[in-house]
Give the backbone structure.
Amino acid sequence: MPKYKELRETKGLQAKQVAQEAGIDPTMFSRYENYRVLPIPDDFRKVLQVLGCAASDIYSPDEVILIPGTVEVKMTGGARVHAEPSEYKMTVRLNNDCREVLTKEVLQKCGYKNIGAWITSCIQKLRERYAELSKNEKKNPAGQ
């Protein structure tokens, strides 16, 4: 469980103060603090700055968002091995209409194990579409 409240209280701050100093909506900060949603990276960085702490002070390592380009360093018998992150965790804001469709029941009925599987499928379709558009641009360059 995240430790927003514990850190906030240690600093003698109210939730509303943290939200205000971070420039985020107090209701949204309450959702972070109560573990109802994960913050988007920009908001998370702002909260970390206000609380004067690191991401690992709030979340356990498996909950922390992996930022693209972050490289894990492993020690193996005195040698350092750099490994790219094996997964990318992301947070997105969607409008409330999405709640009706992005449910476990709907996703499974449509053949997806979970929302991660659905997103992976969407990304694959996006890759294929981008490759197709790039191929067509090479065949027919603009202005010719």
